[in-house]
Amino acid sequence: MKEINSVKIEFLSRSSNESFARSTMAAFAAQLDPTLDELGDIKTSVSEAVTNCIVHGYPDTLGKIQLRARIFPDNSIEITVRDWGRGIADIDAAREPMFTTGGEERSGMGFTIMESFMDKLRVRSSTGRGTTVTMTRRISPRAQLRAAK
Amino acid sequence: MTITSSCDGGALTLAFEGELDHHAAREAMLGIERDIERYLPRACVLDLARLSFMDSSGIAVILKAHRRMAELGGTASVVGAGKQPYKVLDAAGLRRLVKIETTV
Ligand SMILES: Nc1ncnc2c1ncn2[C@@H]1O[C@H](COP(=O)(O)OP(=O)(O)OP(=O)(O)O)[C@@H](O)[C@H]1O
Ligand SMILES: [Mg+2]
Question: Among A12, A46, B4, B70, which is 20 to 30 Å from A119 by CA?
Fold first, then answer.
């Protein structure tokens, strides 16, 4: 499927950029005419993925985070969050609910939340080289629904 | 993010306002710990009515309050959770551990 629109942003792994990242993605997704709930799901998932880059990807350094989004004709949005940090040794284990290497300050629910809030979640990673999380969500076509009524 | 605390007859209420993400979580955790040590309440009520956004970082904050209260022989609970925070709490299965009341 050919993309209709796309955006790419790069920023440093400062925690103050978490709200910047989710708000920016929500603003870009707005062209799909999402409901407030759908927008909330996208914001939450972006927040989870970006926080993971900051907390786990770059635990004691500042590094680059890349955020990309593409919009497709079937009213879906694909969001990719990438870092060039530590990487994940065992992706299947990491995606399990409550798995965390973050200690008391983390609950190990980030991937579980992304999985339940988005339609599709793909994780690619290699230790020492970084992690790429790609998530897709189809937005219900409200305008068409209204027109049909 | 701001937290306003008030204690009334053994019940400590912590009212959250703003967005609770990783950026805000550390300070929130320290504040909650401080308040619990100060008042040693029997119940700790986390009021999320004015919380507009929360992600998994907030789960850890609530779990922290839950664990600390359990150590003191008390309970922690959540009230006023709006749609987005509630959906996150629900997806994380937090209802199995903490009593949660919503506004939705
Ligand atoms: N970008 C990343 N770089 C390196 N490791 C990661 C990355 N993302 C996730 N991980 C690993 O996967 C684990 C699970 O991630 P997940 O988001 O599910 O939970 P968490 O971040 O530990 O806790 P929570 O998201 O609930 O605060 C992490 O503890 C970490 O070990
Ligand atoms: Mg996480």
Answer: A12
**ipTM attached to this prediction:** 0.95
Ligand nearest to the CA of A85: 1
Interior angle at CA B23, CA B17 and CA B28, nearest 5: 50
Which of B19, B29, B60 faces A107 most closely, judged by CB atoms? B60
For domain A5-148, give the CATH number. Answer: 3.30.565.10
Instruction: State yes or no: is A95 an active-site residue.
Output: no
Which atom of ligand 1 approaches the CA of B57 most closely? Answer: 27
pTM over 0.90: yes
Answer for the pair A24, A9: CB distance below 8 angstroms, yes or no. Answer: yes
Is a pLDDT exceeding 90 seen at residue B39?
yes
Which of the following CATH numbers is that of domain B2-102: 3.40.50.620, 3.40.50.150, 3.30.750.24, 3.40.50.970? Answer: 3.30.750.24
Spans of all domains in chain B: 2-102
Interface with chain B: mutation pick from A22, A58, A100, A107, highest number of B CBs within 10 Å: A107
- Which pLDDT tens digit goes with each residue over A15-39? 999 999 999 999 999 999 999 999 9
Q: Is A33 left (phi over 0), alpha (psi -120 to 50) or beta?
A: left
A48: tokens are 């989870």
